[in-house]
Design goal:
By secondary structure, the chain is an alpha+beta fold. The protein is about 40% helix and about 15% strand. The model has no long low-confidence stretch (mean pLDDT about 95).
Length: about 450
C-alpha cells in the first residue's frame, strides 16, 4: 500500500500538516470490505489493531502527509472566508483497482487549526448515518463520497447529552469544493488560484486541458457534473440538507451527509434539517441552490477567465438547460416510458402526489404493480397506461429500499446503545435497492403514521 500526498505537495498554501488524536479504546464498528478491496486494502488487516490505527490516522505509513484542508464557503448564504477541516483530516491519496486516484479522509479525528471553537470530535450516530446513506447512494447509482469504515474511539462526546465518540474514514474522488476556489480567490493570490484550477483539471476534468479556454471548460465541466448529480438527487427524493458552497464538490460527488434524509410524502417544501429554519435547502429548492453555488464558483474563477463575465454567465446557463433535460428524461424513465416527454402528464402526477401526501418512493413501485397507490389517480392512470409503460424497466430504476427515516433513527439509536444488528440489516437492504427480497418487507414500507415530524442534525 502506498498513500500519496499530491494535494499537500501541489497546494501547500491550502494544507496544514496535522495529526489525528489517539483513541483511548478503539473498536471497529463497520467496514465496507468491497470498497477496501477496491482500494487495495486487505479487509482482514483493517480489522487488526494496526489496521484500525490506520483507519484512525494514528498509524500511517512513513510517506503519508496528513493535512487539514483550507477552504471558504457561503453558509446559508453568508460568506465565511476561512472555514477548513475543523474536525477532519486528509490522510492522502490511494490508487484504486481502476487506476483512479481516491482521497482517504477522516471525520471526527480531533481539533485542527480550523476548528473555530469546536471540539473536533464526532459521535457514533452521525458517523453511522453517513455510512448508511452513502452506501445507499452508491447502490442507487448516485455519485457520492463513500464510507470505508466507522471506528468507535472509546471517548465521550458532549452534545445535547453525552454520546459515544467515533471516527469516520471516507473515500472521495477528491475533497475539492466550490469553497476551495473561494478560499484561493479570497487570498488574492492568482497563482494559487491557477494552480488549484490546474490541479482540478488534471484530477477530475482532464479534457478541459486541451480546450481553447481551459478554465472556462473546467467551469462548464463542473456545471454539467452538478446538473447530473442534482437531477439524480431529485429523482431519488434525496434532501441534502446543507448545500453550502463548501459542500459542493468539483468532481460532482455528493459530500457531507449531515442533516440529510430521503423524502417520505412528496412535498417540494420538505425540510429535515433542524438548522434550516427558512427552508433555504428544502427539497424543491435544491436545483436553484446548486445554480446559485455555481454562480459563486464562476465569481471565484473570473481572474482565470480574463474577467469575461458574459462567458461565465452563458456557461452557468447550461446548468438549468441540462438539469431540466435530465430531470424530465429521468422522470419519464421512472414511469416506464420512452420517447418524447409529456411534461403536462408529469406535472399533473407531481401535483396529485403532493395533494395526496403520497409516499414518494413507494408510489413508483406500486405503480408498476407492487401495491396500492394510496390516493386518487383515476383520471391520470388511463392516460399513463395508454402510453404503454414498461413495468419491468420501472423496477430497474425505482428502488424498493431506501434509508427510510424511521428505520435510520431506529438503527442509529440501537447502535449508540451498542447493538449493531438493526444497522447491519438496514445496510443489507439498501445495498441492493432494486431487488425485492423476502424478509425485508418492513424496509420497503412507508413510515408509520405516528412517526411524526422528522428533524435531523449535523452532529457537530
Amino acid at each position: 500500500m502506498t498513500i500519496g500526498n499530491r494535494f499537500a505537495r501541489e497546494l501547500p498554501e491550502m494544507a496544514v500538516r496535522w495529526q489525528a488524536e489517539d483513541a483511548p479504546e478503539p473498536r471497529l464498528l463497520v467496514l465496507d470490505e468491497s470498497l477496501a478491496a477496491d482500494l487495495g486494502l486487505d479487509p482482514a488487516w483493517l480489522r487488526t489493531p494496526e489496521g484500525v490505527g490506520f483507519l484512525l490516522g494514528t498509524a500511517l505509513p512513513e510517506e503519508a502527509t496528513p493535512v487539514a484542508q483550507a477552504y471558504a464557503g457561503h453558509q446559508f448564504g453568508h460568506f465565511v472566508p476561512r472555514l477548513g477541516d475543523g474536525r477532519a483530516l486528509l490522510l492522502g491519496e490511494l490508487t484504486d483497482r481502476g487506476g483512479r486516484l481516491r482521497d482517504l479522509h477522516l471525520k471526527g479525528s480531533g481539533r485542527t487549526p480550523f476548528a473555530r471553537g469546536g471540539d473536533g470530535l464526532a459521535a457514533v450516530g452521525p458517523m453511522l448515518r453517513e455510512y448508511v446513506v452513502s452506501r445507499a447512494m452508491h447502490a442507487l447509482g448516485i455519485p457520492t463520497t463513500r464510507s470505508l469504515a466507522v471506528v468507535a474511539t472509546g471517548r465521550t462526546v458532549y452534545r445535547e447529552s453525552p454520546l459515544p465518540g467515533a471516527v469516520l474514514a471516507r473515500v472521495a474522488a477528491s475533497h475539492l469544493r466550490v469553497g476551495s476556489f473561494q478560499y484561493a480567490r479570497a487570498t488574492g493570490d492568482h497563482d494559487l488560484l491557477r494552480r488549484l484550477a490546474d490541479h482540478a483539471i488534471s484530477r477530475h476534468h482532464p479534457d478541459a486541458a486541451g480546450a481553447e479556454r481551459p478554465y472556462l471548460a473546467l467551469f462548464e465541466a463542473v456545471v454539467t457534473a452538478q446538473a447530473a448529480l442534482v437531477s439524480r438527487w431529485m429523482l431519488a427524493g434525496f434532501v441534502h440538507g446543507v448545500m453550502n458552497t463548501d459542500n459542493m464538490t468539483i468532481s460532482g460527488e455528493t459530500i457531507d451527509y449531515g442533516p440529510c434524509a430521503f423524502m417520505d410524502a412528496f412535498d417540494p417544501a420538505t425540510v429535515y434539517s433542524s438548522i434550516d429554519q427558512g427552508g433555504r435547502y428544502a427539497y424543491g429548492n435544491q436545483p436553484l441552490v446548486a445554480e446559485w453555488n455555481l454562480a459563486r464558483l464562476a465569481e471565484a474563477l473570473l481572474p482565470l477567465l480574463d474577467d469575461d463575465q458574459d462567458a461565465a454567465v452563458a456557461t452557468l446557463g447550461l446548468f438549468r438547460t441540462r438539469y431540466n433535460e435530465l430531470s424530465s428524461a429521468g422522470m419519464w424513465e421512472k414511469l416506464g416510458l420512452s420517447g418524447d416527454v409529456d411534461r403536462a402528464l408529469v406535472e399533473e402526477l407531481l401535483t396529485l402526489l403532493h395533494k395526496g401526501g403520497v409516499d414518494y418512493t413507494s408510489f413508483f413501485r406500486a405503480l408498476s404493480g407492487h401495491g396500492e397507490l394510496g390516493a386518487d389517480f383515476d383520471d391520470w392512470l388511463p392516460r399513463w397506461r395508454a402510453l404503454g409503460p414498461d413495468t419491468a424497466a420501472m423496477d430497474r430504476v425505482n428502488p424498493v429500499y431506501i434509508p427510510r427515516n424511521h428505520l435510520v433513527e431506529e438503527a442509529l439509536a440501537a447502535a449508540t446503545d451498542g447493538d449493531l444488528a438493526p444497522l447491519d440489516r438496514l445496510v443489507q437492504a439498501v445495498s441492493a435497492p432494486f431487488e425485492e427480497r423476502p424478509g425485508l418487507e418492513r424496509y420497503a414500507a412507508p413510515a408509520p403514521q405516528d412517526f411524526g415530524v422528522y428533524r435531523t442534525f449535523c452532529g457537530t
